[in-house]
Amino acid sequence: MYPYILKDFIEIEALLQVFANGWVDITIIHWFAALFYTVSNDGERYNPCAFFGPNSISGEMCERNPEEVKGHILGVYELHMDKRYFLAPYLANDHWSLFIISPARKEVFILDSLKGNKDKNSYLLSKVIEDVFKGTKFTWSMVEVYISLSYLSHPQITT
After folding, report:
1. Using one digit for the tens of pLDDT, what is the confidence trace for 92-145?
2. Cβ neighbours of residue 85 under 8 Å, at least 6 residues apart?
3. Per-residue pLDDT tens for 5-56?
4. Which of 24, 100, 102, 151 is the most exposed, having the fewest neighbouring CB atoms within 10 Å of its CB?
5. How far apart are CA 29 and CA 99, in angstroms?
6. 8 A C-beta contact, residue 26 and residue 83
7. How many angstroms separate the Cα of 3 from the Cα of each of 43, 68, 99, 111, 130?
8. Is the alpha carbon torsion for 17, 23, 29, 30 positive or negative?
9. How many angstroms separate the CA atoms of 150 and 153, rounded?
10. Coil, strand or helix: which one is 59?
11. pTM (two decimals)
């Protein structure tokens, strides 16, 4: 994602607390982690994904400073032009969704667990993406995400 190595550590207890208190939608994080794991570069396979920084593309940033968001997206894209997919974990109005952008295939998928009649125009990030990739006519798809919170009843997880 960046031209330098960035490491961050999150204690498992803190992560479980975030999920248990409902501060983040676990479904989006689950799919993000599963996709990241399956395509991770293990030295033998090509990793087709790059990631945009969630803090750099949040709804608040898109509203407050869209030019900075455009700069981040363009910078990551230029650094990783060999990637097929760009994953954008997007936080807006205390809710996470995930954009999967494929410039080569001219496709954008939006995974959002909130029900409703949403489309690309429901997200500030969509406009920024279109501005960055001017001239690219993307096909936008809303992906239905189903939530199952049955794992929270697991005896090892306490709230």
Report:
1. 998 889 999 999 999 999 998 886 788 999 999 999 999 999 989 999 999 877
2. 48, 49, 50, 100, 101, 102
3. 555 556 666 666 766 676 666 566 666 666 655 555 455 566 788 889 898 9
4. 151
5. 12
6. no
7. 19, 17, 22, 27, 24
8. positive
9. 6
10. helix
11. 0.69
